[in-house]
Fold:
Amino acid sequence: MANHLQFNFQDATSPLMQELVKFHDHSLTILFFISALILYILMMTSLSKLTNKNILDSQEIEMVWTVIPAFILIMLALPSIQILYLMDEIASPDITIKTVGHQWYWTYEFSDLSKESEIESYMLPTADLQNGDFRLLEVDNRISVPMDSKIRMLITSEDVLHAWTLPSMGIKVDAVPGRLNQVTFSSSLPGLFFGQCSEICGANHSFMPIAMEVIPLKTFESWIIKL
Amino acid sequence: MSETIEEKLKNYKTAPFDARFPNQNQTRNCYQNYLDFYRCTKALTAKGVDPLPCDWYRRVYKSLCPMSWVQKWDEQQEEGIFAGNV
Structure:
């Protein structure tokens, strides 16, 4: 979850989010270098006592300030395209979970086994929180998913638009009534991850969070049998 | 490719990737498998053949389709107002 006044991304849980964070670091570094260079040039030219009103052109400097930006753009484009195609990787998933948005809670359905199971996930009201719980993020029933497995999530809504979000995995998918949106992800880290509904959906839009537990496969198997 | 339908059903984990529906919108994937199950059952039963192979479509649509959609379509079929051609 995000801490107070957090500017940066949450720690990456999925391999894809790790790549996105690395790319963001790379792009921001380039941006800072360019900004520093521009500030320096601005300062030096405005404070300089040298004046020459007769400069018209210079092939050499124009070559330099064309080639270097072109090189910088290539340095930005290559990892960007790589991640774009990585996101579109086709893989047969290990498990399918359906997420249905309602006003104002989420339901999660597991239908791969012969027994269909469903969980309803409502936010815990502030008055019911235990010491150490996170306000507006805790839910009564968390969804659990197995670690290191490719999970296909199919997201839809029963009433109005919602959006299912997990920032630590870099996932934000619209829940549209009458449509099934697919996202595939996997997590290499066990843990508890939070998100919040990201599409305005009425009075309690801010109060329908997502809480996901990533647990080892054996623990997941014993959990799902009990549903 | 040489797996029999019984083996495929026995080894079923979840709906596999379907190249007919490669994109984010999987609505048609769910609906098509629902239709295919009922069409397959109707066709095989009419021929007097065991409709076991149709179970594949049932497993796939159960994996993909939200339970409320399936319930609604089943009720529409019972009332004779289902819009699909089954």
